[in-house]
Here is the input.
Amino acid sequence: MNEPIEKIAVLTSGGDAPGMNAAIRAVVRACTYYSVECVGVYRGYQGLIEGDFETLNARHVSNIINKGGTILKSARSLEFKTEEGRAKAYKNLKEHGIGALVLIGGDGTFTGGLKFMEEYNFPLVGIPGTIDNDIYGTDNTIGYDTALNTVVEVIDKIRDTASSHNRLFFIEVMGRDAGFIALNSGIGAGAEEILIPEKNLGLDRLVDSLNKSRANGKTSSIVVVSEGDKIGKTVFELADYITENFPIYDIRVSVLGHMQRGGSPSCFDRVLASRLGVAAVEALLDRTTGVMIGITNNQISKVELDKAIKMNNDINEELLKVAEITSI
Ligand code: ATP
Here is the structure.
């Protein structure tokens, strides 16, 4: 850890998220600013294993701040989960004179990084890049705000049809283990009911809520369902259940899917990614390693990677109350 860091590598791994490019740009330009060479690694950990590297200068990252996806590509690498795979990655990093790594990804990416750091004592820091906002130690992950805006825009459009035809729409949004997208987009789009993995509201409560909406004069309804909802039914099974038991409803299902990951990042995500990218390079140059760089209460924060991986963000009870009160 005492040798000067002359080269920093950056990679994106796991699911892509809008704003990853803005983070890459910030890492590259911070390296340039601090006179350190920046190496882009293509296809996440797989590229690390295969030595798929390219030196990036400030001009390589022109005009990418506004683009979704990741110019470095992402990949899920099974090989990196093996000791042999990680040994190849270490050999490549050493051969290229790379002294530290910036990992942009989710908790799987951080788990792999932590293992690598422990085995080889290799300096690295993580930046949270995932639309799910399910990482402990940061108020927001890169891509979450854009995904919320995308979901709200689509639900607004679906509501036009729902209200024109007096329909009940079940809309499935991403979030296998976390209901942050469902809860916040549901409030933002004025959903009548929101089903999330953290709370098992049960079918009875759903039926109750739909009946109340009807009794209150609502002729159309939107139910936002997180893909990992605890009721234990898929969005289609939920719709079938309501159709069978409450034939008064004219039901449709919409699964939003991968559109939630794409698109140009919001200004919030661009600024967040830029701040995290600069802070990541500064942390490495300060000899900080094994942490995730986040933002807490609008200040740059650092949390140990194992905490970021193992601890969970709680669902804000106040938001649940707001959802309930405003959907009357
Ligand atoms: P997202 O939240 O968007 O899914 P993620 O970073 O959690 O992003 P994963 O596919 O879970 O995405 O992990 C990315 C990569 O990290 C994997 O393809 C694998 O190469 C590496 N990785 C994950 N878990 C481990 C592990 N236990 N050991 C070594 N490497 C791992």
In short: The mean pLDDT is 94. DSSP finds eleven helices and eleven strands in the chain.
